[in-house]
User: Fold Group 1 truncated hemoglobin from Novosphingobium ginsenosidimutans.
Amino acid sequence: MFTLAYLAALLAGSSDPQTTPLAPSEQVSSEQPAGSVDWDKEFGVERVDRDPVTGEVPIAPYEQSNANAQATPFSDAKLLAAFGGRTGIQRIANRLVELSEADPRISDVFKAKDTVRLKRTLFEQFCYIMGAGCDYTGRTMQAAHKDLGLQRADMNALVENLQQSMHEAKVPFSAQNRLLAKLAPMEREVVVR
Ligand code: HEM
Assistant:
């Protein structure tokens, strides 16, 4: 049975007729400025500040050189055409990163890594090697992979993803193998001994 007070409270928009104002000691102060607590610090959250233009996370300075790509470039217009030129190479590099990030065999390695930078530098490396007129601005293979603890199986998985990316881009098998032959010697720089 409704009491009169309950009905009055309902009409006033409150469903709890027992509601009494909070004592001053119970009230949450709204005077504390909103920005005074560093919640990232409180909860140990590490913030990464990406470059607003490139979207990349800045890394420690290193010497840039095409030699860091660690392969002699091709000079073969037919081969380049088989890869679909620069656009085809870009698509293949992006797809390789996406497939690898989604590949349960190796996805953990890519977590918390700057895949914006990885897509750019991988494209530059492939573009340089294919003789498509790019400079490679990334690090050496040893420097880029030294803390990743990669094994031979990881390398095999990555190569399979690259084959898949080239297959999707309709690169003929013989042309695929020419790029793979340039990358194969890099395994000793990438995997841990
Ligand atoms: C021949 C084989 C490989 C090539 C040509 C290659 C190429 C590259 C390039 C160009 C970079 C960027 C360098 C830079 O940031 O300056 C890079 C970084 C990276 N690579 Fe590879 N890579 C190879 C093998 C692998 C394998 C097998 C894995 C893992 C399964 C892998 C995972 C990564 C990751 C996670 C990064 C980012 C490292 C970081 O940001 O600290 N790579 N790789």
